[in-house]
Input
Amino acid sequence: MTEVKDARLTVDGSTIELEIERASIGNDGLSVSNLLRDTGLVTVDPGFTNTASCESAITYIDGDQGVLRYRGYPIEQLAEHSTFLEVAYLLIRGELPTESELTAFNHRVARHMHVHEGIKTFLGAFPRDAHPMAVLSGALSALSTFYPESVGRGEYEIELATVQLLAKTAVVISYLQRRVTGGELIEPRPGGHYVDEFMRVAFSGPDGELDIDPIVRRALDLLLILHADHEQNCSTSTVRIVGSSQANIYASVSAGIGALSGPLHGGANEAALRMFDHIKESGDTVEQFVAKVKDKSEGARLMGFGHRVYKSFDPRGTVVKRIADQVLDQLGGNNETFDMAKRLEEIALSDDYFIERKLYPNVDFYTGLLYSAMKFPVPIFTPLFALGRMPGWIAHYREMMHDPKTKIGRPRQIYTGVVERDYVPMDQR
Ligand code: ACO
Output
């Protein structure tokens, strides 16, 4: 891409110069902040397909080349060598931790895993079949009321809220799983390994013991790493916009959970698995289902396909498919569905409809199958995404708080309603 040197806009014969904001890599930006003042015009960009809402030094994506880097480190290297809490540290603090820094961070998170009895009562007040994402959003917002010492924008409060959120989100999700499966809630053990404790509290029987398969432990750690951040996606932008009003971090991530729950975003992992089941139950062939998607008459989309930014491949999807291959091979998961998913992918990737629109499998196409092989209940799939994304949300909230350019998020609109009319009394309508 050649570097743009200068940019001008001519409106009704008057030309104004637009400032260019330089990126260290990727698209530079055209600053339009003074456009309204200088021309009386606002910009229009539904879905923010062309709008940079902030500067950020956390995550870089090149959607054409399938590149994803956290703080400059390629996702493939982090997936191979790192652990989830190490990646969380990297995203939040900006640098990889030394061994002693990581040990201290792991201990600090482990010490905060227990949750207040009131939170358990709160979780118990929801219907057992309530969707866990709705309960999770409420529970994370409620944390601020149980831990008021971590509410605030000072350095101490934000540090405390950071570890509280990483630690307690894991246990709340484990509890949500126990509510789905009908088990009693058990206490996390202080000082345990993060992923092990998460799995033990989610899966163990009443004696609280769980023999964790190392394949499952590593697969889950990897999946959390792959989900840890994705720059200004829908839920992260939600966290930022809520936080821009100086709402506390718990309220901000709680709103992010709401955004993540939608099937076009994090909810796609659950939706993709339900889609595979639907194809099997309907008796349609994979070819017939793809024909229905292309036809659009039934409104069906190929869930787990397509991405706003990735237009060649999603590098996370490539890693997930590889792990799914290994895990399903070794654990003997639902190979029939996996084979169907692979066939669906193959057909879509060679079909003009998907090729022309640059639609490729995203991270969510295979994750549901993988979670299912690891014995997670379907309603817990999207909460698992939330657990992975938590470090990213925290990192963005903190970055935004420290950025002097941060302003309250408040878009404009193009008003298309009635211009003005007089009130009509009830008896004359
Ligand atoms: N299946 C079939 N057609 C699709 C799909 C799909 N999965 N995704 C996009 N299209 C089509 C659209 O119908 C549209 O076609 P048209 O040009 O004939 O109107 C075209 O491709 C462009 O689609 P948009 O919706 O404009 O693309 P956008 O960038 O707004 O949406 C999104 C991206 C939401 C991810 C979309 O591809 C989608 O709905 N995918 C399925 C849901 C999904 O997997 N979401 C997870 C995303 S990754 C994540 O959040 C972790």
Notes: The longest helix spans residues 155-181. The first strand starts at residue 7 and ends at 11.
